[in-house]
Design brief:
The complex is a heterodimer of chains A (840) and B (303). Chain A is α+β, with helices and mostly antiparallel strands and 840 residues long. Chain A has four domains: 308 residues, no CATH class; 61 residues, no CATH class; 153 residues, no CATH class; 156 residues, no CATH class. Chain A has 27 helices and 21 strands. In chain A, helix 15 packs parallel to helix 21 and helix 18 packs antiparallel against helix 19. Chain A starts with 19 loop residues before the first helix and ends with a strand. Chain B is α+β, with helices and mostly antiparallel strands. Chain B has two domains: 105 residues, Immunoglobulin-like (Sandwich); 178 residues, C8orf32 fold. Chain B contains six helices and 15 strands. The two termini of chain B are 20 Å apart. The chains are: A alpha+beta (840), B alpha+beta (303). Chains A and B meet through helix 6 and strand 21 of A and strand 2, helix 1, strand 14 and strand 15 of B. Strand 21 of chain A pairs antiparallel with strand 14 of chain B, so a sheet runs across the interface. Chain A: This is Putative circularly permuted ATP-grasp superfamily protein/putative alpha-E superfamily protein.
């Protein structure tokens, strides 16, 4: 996120210091009056920190740096990123090299508090949407609930299917000056950060594998298993289809959502993938509509159902609340759970805990007053100089949602807030917030204290709440930056809960044998669409790159050619014309190097190789959970290779080299897809996309370079474009002949570059994909594929003419249209709903 | 007074619609000075599914699913309603607006009629400092809440121009306030924004208004319109007549209190809560909308 120097290592040269730990401790300037995780008030180190630093020092500075940089490279390559509100770019995830280390006993106390609070929150939300006793008994003021934009009235009276509102609870915590944990915010709507915490752990586990086991750091898989089991147990069917509902790639935490879906084996869906039919919720898949049993909701609840909630929402599913009302779908967290995030609840929690649980609250909030209460208002007014004013429950959205108007923020915004207390005091809470506690961060070769907040997660299971034994921790890189909101200047840290004894490692073998299955569930139509286009774009890029490379290679004499380097030969003009036709270049008569550069690397050309790679990346970005991490990495590398910013036009040889390396990445992607992707429906759509496009490209090449009048040079280019020179040379000793070249490029069923081969593969894919008809009659798209395969199988190269060649391209495009019509969204019954206008 | 109501809505689509799902809020409210004698809703084409849903504020909504291809969708709601509301209070009577504000916050209930729901900005009624300041002039310290609101209603009536062309159903409040023009929906939203800006609980009411044909002429068929006004919570138990539960209707379009000329369909936080017809259709094309309303008092003939 902060360019090159995101992690400001400034390791000294490899001079072993006698005791670096001593130096780090002595150089640590803890802040007076603030609790610090590393050094206590008397200057002693806490808990496991010395043990960690000892080992950290022993590993050696260079080694640590190398290990961590490899972790950081993983972050970049795997595309772990987030978006800042209102910003379309993804930012690489900033992760600090030091974990926050918390002693197991200390953690246990925090976890007990979190469990109590999660249970309390469940009781409160169940009362708010149910009998409403807290309000009628005067334990909670009605406006504190009514004013929350997350108090969703249509949800009132709905009993949550599965029995609970909250599947996942999170709290942002920090320590007060006395070292006691405090809850700064409750997260109940759709808490984010779980996936980032998981990714952070994966990076640190790579960087310090031995340390994690030596220090007995608590492991995470058990928690995620519980989360999964908790959702499963809430469902009606024993083998439920669980979906993670995302708002799509433009969500600030989309990458995290994709990572979680992959890790937990949930289907990542957008609203358009879901449809309500006959009172139940379904996913649109390539095998037709399939029931969705549970939704893990990552869109704000207000957007969930345009029929009853925000009517202009296009992210949700019309009618889903009705399904919920009939008990037909489990939604975690229940829509409306966000009402618990209201700041106006804080002051009432201790009494509510006494009333509902008969216990006092283990984790307290910072002292908070709701200004809708006349006495509280008077108190806040009298103590304004140490009060932070926060919006209570009023709809405050967007970047100002977390606006904090601290005592020192004596600017216009705070002035306005103070003035607003006159007209609408109930919109505000006053809070006495102390400074955040600090943890060590690595800064320019030393340890420095930095304020942090930590988001702790708990999941509901059939046996109560279970707390994740790590947290999503955020620290400010610089002094004076508020780490409560993820934005520039904030770094995250892994959190290590260290135990005295070796920790429980998850059992390797599950004792219950699941029902054996070979598909991971039906592929959503939208994902099939995107995979298909990912394949097509990659192959389009390959077509452009091969054309450019052939042009460059021909000029450099690497191809059998007797015409030397004249740009104007008919063959070369044909190559240039095709590049222009494809939209890869504007002007077909540029100098060769400029032409090649434009066709490969120009973002402005919609048909350049780079544009196709960017399109492929966009398709891939909606498929994160389905692609091997290596595939995303190869795609990133491919983009980096083509996307160079250099005002000088590189030499032809340099461009040739780039084209060659780009082809290398593309074949690596092919290899990865073949070897590392499960050959289920998703892979088949990806492969069909490539095959359609390759068939189209090859037909299009044949029309130009193997037409009825093709000369020797054309045919040489044709073979080069199909990567078939060597095979041709081995098969025919007599030099190029038009029918022989056509046979090899178009009809040869053994040549993986021939059009016939592509069609055969498509037929094979379609044979294994689910059919909608049970009577065995082939559907139209399959009939078209079979017909085309028959044409190729029975064609004779000596009889082919240019007219037929032209027809191949059209037939392949028609086949693509039929496949799209059958499997992808966008057909008649899957139209995006339009709003029915209301009346004045 | 007994009214016969007819409300016919017709949508004509440019392209065939294969699927539609909608909510209808066209059944008048029972209670609060109204009694519904009969009510029917006829829909074409015939829906596949027809259900009802309890709504937080209003009477039940009718929900429909239509899954047969159609190019015209029409809804005809007819009803007979007795409206008999007690007399209105004297404008300057009732508790002070400051006391009302405090009482509204302290009421320990979230029933549909609880003022707590109506204190806050809503999707179509954002709070704006200019609108609050405009309203503030009607609320000197100590004035009765009802009196202040009555004055605000009269000021809107004289400061704003009724102009059906100035705004549409989706014109934001800021725009109609700037234009000082619009229709009943705009005036109601502006008045609500002003009242809520001062911390007073105000609701949006949809319904119909009795119109009086020129003397000697009969009523023209389909010439009436749906209407909207404001309801303000002014505290419980200070008036024996109108305003049960503390709610008093005020019509800024006509500068009058709400009595027997107003027939209420439903009320909510703003237009979004009470939209007579909303929903989704799967169609790529546009649509044309036509509305005809008849409000016929029993003692009158119609052409």
């Amino acid at each position: 996120m902060t360019s090159g120097g995101a992690l400001a290592y400034d390791w000294p040269a490899d001079v072993p210091s006698p005791d670096p730990v001593r130096g780090w401790i002595d150089g640590y300037e803890r802040r007076p009056g603030v609790f610090d995780e590393f050094i206590d008030a008397n200057g002693f180190t806490r808990g496991a920190w010395p043990r960690f630093l000892q080992r950290f020092g022993q590993i050696g500075e260079r080694e640590v740096m190398a290990r961590f940089l490899s972790g950081e490279r993983h972050i970049h390559d795997a595309g772990i990123s987030y978006r800042v509100y209102g910003d379309q770019r993804e930012h690489a995830w900033p992760l600090g090299p030091l974990p926050l280390i918390i002693d197991g006993r200390d953690w246990a106390e925090l976890a007990a508090g979190i469990i109590q609070r999660a249970g309390l929150m469940e009781r409160i939300v169940a009362d708010i949407y149910g009998p409403g006793r807290l309000i009628s008994e005067g334990l909670l003021p009605a406006p504190a609930v009514a004013g929350s934009p997350e108090f969703l009235r249509p949800v009132h009276g709905i009993a949550p299917p599965g029995g609970r509102h909250l599947q996942l609870y999170a709290a942002d915590v920090g320590r007060g000056p006395d070292g006691r944990w405090r809850v700064l915010a409750d997260r109940t709507q759709a808490p984010s950060g779980l996936g980032f915490a998981l990714e952070n752990r994966m990076v640190l586990a790579r960087a310090y594998p031995d340390l994690i086991s030596d220090l007995h750091v608590e492991r995470l898989p058990g928690f995620f298993q519980s989360l999964r089991e908790g959702i499963t147990a809430a469902c009606e069917r024993s083998d439920p289809r669980i979906c993670l509902l995302t708002s799509g790639p433009y969500s600030s935490t989309y990458v995290e959502q994709a990572a979680l879906a992959r890790y937990l084996g949930f289907l990542l869906v957008e609203g358009d993938d879901l449809v309500v039919q006959d009172g139940l919720l379904h996913v649109r898949t390539v095998a037709g509509l399939k029931r969705a049993d549970a939704l893990w909701r990552r869109i704000d609840a207000d957007y969930l159902d345009p029929m009853e909630l925000r009517s202009e929402s296009r992210l949700g599913v019309p009618g889903i609340l009705d399904v919920l009302r009939r008990g037909g779908v489990v939604i975690g967290n229940m829509p409306g759970s966000g009402v618990l995030e209201s700041g106006a609840l804080s002051p009432y929690l201790p009494r509510i805990a006494e009333r509902l649980l008969g216990e006092s609250l283990r984790l307290s909030d910072p002292p908070t007053w709701w200004c809708g209460d006349p006495e509280s208002l008077a108190h806040v007014r009298a103590n304004l100089d140490r009060m932070t004013l926060r919006p209570a429950a009023t709809p405050v959205r967007g970047p100002e949602r977390d606006a904090i108007l601290g005592p020192h923020a004596l600017d216009a915004a705070r002035e306005r807030a103070i003035a607003a207390l006159d007209d609408r005091p109930f919109d505000w809470v006053g809070q006495e917030t102390g400074p955040l506690s600090t943890m060590p961060a690595w800064f320019e070769g030393r340890l420095v204290p930095r304020p942090f907040v930590m988001r702790v997660f708990a999941t509901a299971t059939s046996d109560g709440w279970r707390v994740m034994p790590t947290a999503f921790c955020r620290t400010a890189e610089q002094e004076g930056v508020d780490p409560t909101v993820m934005r520039a200047g904030i770094r995250s840290a892994d959190v290590w809960v260290v135990s005295d004894q070796p920790v429980e490692t998850p059992p390797l073998l599950n004792t219950i044998t699941p029902k054996i299955r070979r598909i991971a569930g039906h592929l959503p139509s939208r994902a099939a669409d995107n995979l298909f286009w990912l394949g097509r774009y990659l192959e389009r890029a390959e077509g452009v790159i091969r054309l450019v490379q052939t042009h460059l290679g021909r000029l450099a004499g690497t191809l059998a050619s007797d015409t030397g380097s004249d740009v104007g030969t008919p063959t070369s003009l044909r190559i240039r014309a095709l590049l222009e036709e494809w939209g890869s270049v504007d002007e077909p008569d540029l100098p060769t190097a400029a032409l090649a550069r434009e066709a490969l690397c120009d973002r402005e050309q919609h048909g350049s190789a780079l544009s196709h790679v960017l399109s492929a990346r966009r398709s891939a970005s909606t498929l994160r959970e389905r692609l091997p991490v290596e595939a995303w990495r190869a795609l990133t590398e491919l983009q980096d290779l083509l996307d160079f910013d250099d005002s000088r036009v590189p030499s032809e040889a340099q461009l040739f080299g780039r084209a060659e390396r780009a082809l290398g990445h593309l074949s690596a992607l092919s290899g990865l897809s073949h070897e590392n992707m499960n050959h289920s429906a998703g892979w088949r759509f990806f492969d069909m996309g490539r095959r359609i496009e390759r068939g189209v490209n090859t037909s299009s090449f044949a029309l130009r370079f193997a037409g009825d009048q093709a000369g020797a040079e054309d045919l040489g280019v044709m073979l080069a474009l199909c990567d078939s020179q060597i095979a041709y040379g081995a098969r025919y000793l007599t030099g190029v002949s038009l029918p022989a070249v056509r046979d090899m490029a178009l009809l040869d069923p053994f040549n993986p570059r021939s059009v016939a081969f592509q069609v055969e593969e498509i037929v094979r894919h379609l044979d294994t994909l689910p059919a909608l008809r049970a009577d065995g009659v082939p559907e139209p798209h399959r009939r078209a594929a079979l017909r085309l395969a028959g044409t190729f199988a029975t064609a004779d190269a000596t009889d082919l003419n240019a007219g037929q060649l032209a027809g191949f391209e059209d037939e392949l495009e028609d086949l693509a249209t039929l496949i799209a019509g059958r499997y992808f969204p966008g057909n008649a019954d899957a139209l995006r709903p339009e709003k029915l206008t209301g009346l004045a | 007074m007994i009214y016969s109501l007819r409300h016919l809505t017709t949508y004509r689509y440019a392209r065939t619609v294969n699927y539609a799902r909608c909510n209808l809020r066209l059944r008048p409210r029972d209670g609060d000075g109204q009694q519904v004698l009969a009510s029917t809703i006829t829909v074409t084409p015939v829906p596949k599914g027809r259900g009802t849903r309890d709504e937080y504020f209003g009477p039940q909504a009718l929900t429909l699913i239509i899954d047969q291809p159609h190019k015209v969708f029409s809804v005809e709601a007819t009803s007979r309603v007795i409206v008999e509301r007690p007399a209105l209070p004297d404008p300057e009577s009732g508790p002070s607006w400051e006391a009302v504000r405090e009482a509204a916050l302290a009421l320990p209930t979230l029933d549909a009629a609880s003022p707590a729901h109506f204190l806050f900005p809503s999707r179509r009624v954002p709070l704006m400092a200019e609108v609050t300041d405009y309203a503030r002039r009607s609320f000197p310290p100590g004035r009765s809440a009802y009196g202040g609101a009555f004055d605000l209603m009269n000021r809107i009536r004289s400061d704003f121009r009724f102009d059906a062309k100035a705004t549409t159903v989706s014109t934001p409040l800021a725009k109609s306030f700037e234009l000082k023009a619009g229709v009943c929906q705009d005036f109601a939203h502006v008045m609500i924004a002003g009242l809520r800006g001062l911390g007073l609980p105000a609701a949006y009411v949809s319904g119909y208004l009795r119109t009086r044909p020129p003397p000697g002429q009969a009523r023209l068929r389909g010439a009436d319109a749906s209407h909207a006004w404001v309801s303000l919570w002014c505290g419980n138990g200070w008036h024996d007549g109108a305003g049960q539960g503390g709610w008093f209707g005020l019509d800024p379009t006509n500068a009058c209190g709400v009595r027997d000329d107003h027939i209420e369909l439903t009320s909510g936080r703003d237009y979004g809560d009470v939209t007579p017809i909303d929903g989704i259709v799967s169609s790529p094309g546009g649509q044309k909308l036509k509305v005809e309303v008849d409000v016929v008092p029993d003692d009158e003939d119609m052409v």
